[in-house]
Amino acid sequence: MLFSIQGRINFENLSRFSFYDESTFRRRFSQFFDWLGFNQSLIESAKVGSQGQVIAVTDCSFISKSGKHTFGLDKFWSGCLGKAKKGLEISVLGLIDVFTAKAWVLDVTQTPADLSSKEEGKYTRINFYIEQILDCLPHLTSVLYFVADGFYAKKKIFDAFSGMNKHLITKLRPDANLMFKFEGTHEKRKGAKNKYESKAVYDDLSRWHLIGNDAKYDYLTVYNRICYSPQFDIWLSVILVFNTKTKQYILLASTDLAQNPLENSGRTKENLTNLYYT
Total domain count for the chain? Predict the structure, then answer.
């Protein structure tokens, strides 16, 4: 019934489309129900991934809400408004069938109030998002890649995925502090071999390896280098996607150093958009 009724999903509206009254729904919903397992069963019944690879995506969504006593009411970032606003936030973890390009929501968790949005601290919103992924991990044994936007490009997140033996694909700042991996011939001398070639530059594309054009948008040219991030203390396969129309670029990164860069460039914000609108 949740997937068929019109209007808002609340107890009053549920009672209008069933034989049970509002109080019955309130009592039942106060009891535990394994929504994660239920959603997993629906995804399996739809044979998601039967024809190809499945990747996971995660993102947060702002919900406008007035009042003073609603659980979780706090200031959260609204992408539509481009600023923080008082309301509610949900953290969504979904699966995308790469072959069909369809998204399926696996888990939705409401973000608690009074948690710092900064990375520093013992327990912040970042830790809460990581806990959600860890809770869902038993249902994601066959999923290797997770896609998230630039907000998730944080050391805590990278460390968490490293501990899970999973790979993260995310977006970096356009001025990201990166070091090119040394690819030349090492001199015959005493001491350690060179690890870094130089600091990464973004205004000289000759320093990058040309991979080719994006299969879907031929005006996007894809470049690649293996880089070290001092901020995250991790080696990344960095993809520079250059728009030949606007002369602008974006930086994407994968913790899988052996991944095909063209494959990586297709798993960006479009996948996060699919999660909410398909």
Answer: 1
